[in-house]
Amino acid sequence: MSTQAEFDKINAGETITGQAFTVSRETIADFALGSLDFNPLHFDDNYMDEDFGKTQFKGVIMHGMQNFAVITRTLTDWLLARGGYHRRLETRWLTPVYLGDTITPVATVQRKLETDGSRWVVFDITVTNQDGVMVASGEAMAEFADVFPGAPS
To answer: Which domains are delineated in the chain?
Structure first.
C-alpha cells in the first residue's frame, strides 16, 4: 500500500499507546552505558539523600532522555509499519521518574499537513506514571513521503 493511502487512514484524535516501561537499576545502568551519562543522580542513593546531595528529589532518578527513547520507540513501531518516519520530538520533563515507576507514553494525532514534497503528522505526546501523573509532555512530527532524499532506490 502507498504511503498516501496509509496517510489518508490517519485521523486527528487517533491515539497510539506505547509499551509500559518499568524503571530499575538495570535499565538505568543500560541507558548510562549507551549514553555515557553516569551522573550520580542516576546511581548514588547517598548523593540523592536530601542531607547529602542537597537535591529536591526523593531518590535516584531515571535519565530524562530515557523518556525520549520510550516515546521514540512508540512512534517508530507505529510509523514504520505505515511507511512513516519519525522526524522531530520536543518534550518537557515535568516530574522525575524514580526507581520502580512504570511509565507509559501516548501519542495523539493533533493534525495532518501536506506540503509540495511530503505529508506530515503532528502528535501531542504525554508520558504518565503508574499513578496517572504526567512526567513528560510535548510534540512530535512524522513524515510520510514516497521518496526520501538519500534513500536507496
So the answer is: 3-144 (3.10.129.10)
